Q: What sequence folds into this?
């Protein structure tokens, strides 16, 4: 079974630009979560989507948004980029229901550098 | 007080040693507990997934959860140089909440 895939793997942007990251979950998984990982803050939860609906949201500004498509693929968008947005952005997929639904499998991440 | 505390290390052990990694937490609602391994510049890899208190074993890895003490552990037996990575604990309260709360990670080096 193929794992979680994320594209692109690396991105370099400048302040003020916007960026869109993409995630394809494991086949059969309906939940996609996004996390930001930085050396200072560690892994922080951005949001989670299930069946095209945002079900959970973390404490990030509105510049961070996401969506999920009917095939469970998800995108996240960051507008008006700031230097502090430089991070590894990780996508995780899970079943999203039942007791095993909290088991999350991560993709390789997209490393975003904001100059 | 952070919700999840994890000693960042670094931890350095000789090959073949038993490694003990730990996390403490403050939120008594947590009931799902996970351990991830993350190699440098890679995504986290799920090692162990447990529900509520108790032990779970998978090969050289054993996860323990003590909800009364709000303390979880991961033991690695017969450690190998390939185990050198950052180990992250993660927790979730279940219900409609699918957010994982992570510890900061412990950097482990296993020396040949």
A:
């Amino acid at each position: 079974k193929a794992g979680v895939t994320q594209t692109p793997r690396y991105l370099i942007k400048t302040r003020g630009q916007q960026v869109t990251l993409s995630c394809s979950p494991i086949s059969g998984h309906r939940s996609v979560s996004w996390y930001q990982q930085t050396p200072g803050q560690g892994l922080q939860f951005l949001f989670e989507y299930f069946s095209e609906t945002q079900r959970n949201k973390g404490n990030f500004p509105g510049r961070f948004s996401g969506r999920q498509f009917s095939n469970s693929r998800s995108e996240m968008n960051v507008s008006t980029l700031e230097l502090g947005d430089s991070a590894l952005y990780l996508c995780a997929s899970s079943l999203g229901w039942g007791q095993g639904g909290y088991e999350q499998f991560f993709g390789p991440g997209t490393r975003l550098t904001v100059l | 007080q952070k919700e999840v505390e994890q000693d960042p290390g670094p931890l350095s052990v000789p090959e073949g040693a038993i490694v003990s990694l730990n996390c403490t937490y403050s939120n008594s609602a947590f009931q799902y507990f996970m351990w991830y391994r993350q190699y440098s510049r890679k995504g986290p890899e799920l090692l162990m997934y447990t529900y509520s208190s108790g032990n779970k074993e998978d090969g050289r890895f054993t996860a323990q959860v003590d909800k009364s003490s709000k303390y979880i552990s991961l033991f690695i037996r017969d450690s190998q140089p390939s185990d050198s990575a950052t180990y992250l604990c993660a927790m979730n309260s279940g219900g409609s909440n699918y957010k994982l709360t992570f510890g900061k990670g412990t950097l482990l080096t296993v020396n040949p």
